[in-house]
Design a protein that fits this description.
Elements: E1 2-6, H1 13-23, E2 27-32, E3 44-45, H2 54-70, E4 73-77, H3 97-104, E5 108-113, H4 121-127, H5 141-162, E6 165-168, E7 181-182, E8 205-208, H6 213-216, H7 218-228, E9 235-238, H8 244-251, E10 256-258, H9 268-275, E11 280-282, H10 294-299, E12 303-304, H11 310-319, H12 324-338, H13 341-353, H14 361-366
Parallel strand pairs: 1-2, 1-4, 2-3, 4-5, 5-6, 6-7, 8-9, 8-10, 10-11, 11-12
């Protein structure tokens, strides 16, 4: 079986999943049109972001056409395919032409939606009291309302009849991609990320990694921490603008990690630090948990901090520092169960073989 993951490596999910599929005997490749400042790896990077040129055009065209001819399974990410060149305004490509070709050739088509590729900002704003999708939230909100939401609807309408399977990594997407199934992050190679144990920090180090502060709710987090400085001693570090490998070294020094407080779920960053045995705090939106397996909801170790009472919730966490070690240990166990790329890859390979079979995530992680 030949499997292609493409055309973007968002959060390192495609890379880790493809490596685990390889370890299980599947020829699995990752080809991306471009990479970002995070420096995530791929088997083939076809060009630099936004850099149009004849060589880049030929490489993207060749791989976009070759993929449906060569691979048995095409697993696309972030609502795009290899012939979608959204970073080239002068030459946007032929979005989904390669997916349609694959469908005509009888190939199997999988899509993993990851968040802002499918979240409808207008609907998120109407449904949720707390969301980054509001005028004073995400900097892209105006563009989403005026044009991007319509493009997302069209994307979902296009892939729904094409796809053999649609997965989504953020439970909120279940409201929009109703043909989809929730899939946990499988973005961490657990053979290389180990629990770090307790730090030697006398003052607890609180860490936050705002890849986009307007989405993560960074201003709210930092305002709440500022309120607490007169009551508690702690150090705070915001990790941003550095390659992923350097960031991982900083994560290991943290005592408590705050992920995000507007999305209603945690991100791949939280999985990385939970794998290190760190306690993680984030806003978990109860209304979206219906899309998770029941046992995953029960096992969830992320400390829920609510946007309306961030200072109070964080104060409670700081008062319970003695519990952080056990919360961190529970976090590592949770990742080993629910975010284990070996288990997710095994379940995914079975889905590649028979896309019509039920995708039973609970059975996959339990080894049943």
């Amino acid at each position: 079986m030949r499997v292609l993951h493409a055309p973007a490596n968002v959060g390192n999910q495609p890379w880790v999943l493809s490596r685990r599929e390889r370890a299980l005997g599947v020829q699995s490749d990752l080809i991306v049109n471009y990479t970002t400042w995070l420096g995530y790896p791929a088997d083939h990077i076809l060009s630099k972001h936004g850099q149009f040129g004849l060589g880049s055009l030929l490489r993207r065209t060749y791989h976009g056409i070759r993929a449906p001819l060569y691979y048995d399974v095409l697993h696309y990410y972030f609502g795009r395919t290899l012939l979608d060149w959204s970073d080239w305004s002068r030459c946007p490509g032929l979005p989904f032409a390669d997916a349609r070709m694959a469908k005509r050739l009888g190939r199997k088509l999988f899509f993993t939606l990851q968040g802002c590729d499918a979240r409808l900002a207008g609907e998120s704003n109407r449904r949720n009291l707390h969301t980054m999708c509001r005028p004073d939230g995400c900097s892209a909100y105006g563009a989403c309302i005026s044009t991007i939401d319509n493009a997302r609807r069209k994307m979902i309408d296009v892939i729904s009849p094409l796809a053999d399977r649609i997965f989504y990594l953020n439970p909120e997407i279940g409201h929009y991609a109703r043909k989809g199934v929730f899939l946990p992050y499988a973005n961490v190679d657990l053979d290389s990320v180990f629990p770090t144990g307790e730090t030697s920090n006398a003052r607890p180090l609180i860490l936050h990694a705002p890849s986009d502060p307007t989405i993560k709710g960074t201003a709210l987090i930092e305002a709440a921490l500022a309120q607490l400085r007169s009551q508690f001693e702690f150090d705070y570090v915001a990790v941003k603008g550095i390659p992923h490998a350097e960031a991982m070294a900083l994560y290991r020094k943290a005592d408590l990690v705050i992920d995000q407080v507007l999305a209603g779920w945690y991100g791949g960053f939280a999985v990385e630090v939970m794998a290190m045995g760190k306690p993680v705090a984030a806003y978990i939106r109860e209304a979206d948990l219906q899309f998770l397996p029941t046992q995953m909801r029960r096992d969830l170790p992320v400390q829920n901090i609510h946007p309306d009472r961030l200072a109070m919730d964080l104060a409670g966490l700081l008062q319970r520092r003695a519990e952080w070690r056990e919360i961190g240990a529970a976090s590592r166990r949770y990742v080993m169960t629910w975010h284990n790329p070996d288990k997710v890859a095994k379940a995914m390979i079975e889905a590649y073989r028979d896309p019509q079979a039920p995708f039973d995530l609970a059975a996959a992680v339990s080894g049943a």
